[in-house]
Amino acid sequence: MTLGAGYYDGWVLANGVKTHYSWAGTEGPAVILCHGGGPGSSGEAGWRFMLPALAEAGFRVFAPDQVSMGLTDARPHAWPVLGHQSLVDHVRSFIDALCLDEVCMVGNSQGAYVAAKYAIDHPERVRKCFLIGSATIAMSMGLPRPDGGRNAAYQALMSYDYSEEGMRKFLVAIINDPSAVSDTLIKLRHDAANRPGIRESFQAFQDYQERMRNEPKLWDRFSLADSLPKLKVPAKFIWGNDDSFAPVQMGHELEKLLPNIPFEYIAAAGHQCQTDQPDLINEMVIDFLRYDSLKVTS
Questions:
Q1: d(CA 85, CA 240)
Q2: Structure pTM?
Q3: What is the pLDDT of residues 105-125, one digit of tens each?
Q4: Euclidean distance between CA atoms 284 and 152, whole angstroms
Q5: Which of 18, 31, 45, 271 is the most exposed place for a label (fewest CB within 10 A)?
Q6: How far apart are CA 181 and CA 163, in angstroms?
Q7: pLDDT tens across 54-72, in order?
Q8: Domain boundaries, the chain
């Protein structure tokens, strides 16, 4: 089952993890698309509109299913036992497996953290970094949720019960246009979230998160408070004005902490700007990746 045309399935062994990915384009600069962390997330679900658009614009585009998500291996050796760092390390192994020397990183939500952290850890391999609405990055910078997590979208995530109805409730809450939540999308994400090993993999991630919150040495590895404001890789951050999961106030507060990264706020877009406003966001990403004279302030 696929959600659209113009992209393809691929598999690669990334440091022993059988990794599924969606891809498009056979020549041009390489772009890695990092999806968010909601239940049933995958490269296809998160980037189905951007994959063919970037390929048509002359890029090679790869959207891996991160560990604990999509169709990627969910056996114990692939569990994200180091939390977010496991996701970053997996993307590094994925890029290595494809023999890509230099990439552009694009990420949404938790995937924006993965993209930014990979750029921080491997600046010699990243040409540019485009980030889309991320409570994970805000949290890594020490910012709390302005509503304390009481919004309907966050509550839909917390109450997700692995049912199709629970998936529908979550997707309707985070996607700006409820009519875009098709039965096909719900089934694709529901099936992915209920694959053998996925729940255990997610629990391993959660267990580490709890440990990280209580051990400063582990929090320091997750935190971007010192490193992201110093990032020299050209970057851009966008945020949906109607984001119901990570309220736009988080973006405004985060912008104050990142004077080296320009922010732009998108009207009529929620947590997944790339699916709420695909034509606009595709054009923004293409223009940003093509524009080579962007200056980075120190």
A1: 26
A2: 0.95
A3: 999 999 999 999 999 999 999
A4: 29
A5: 18
A6: 15
A7: 999 999 999 999 999 999 9
A8: 8-290
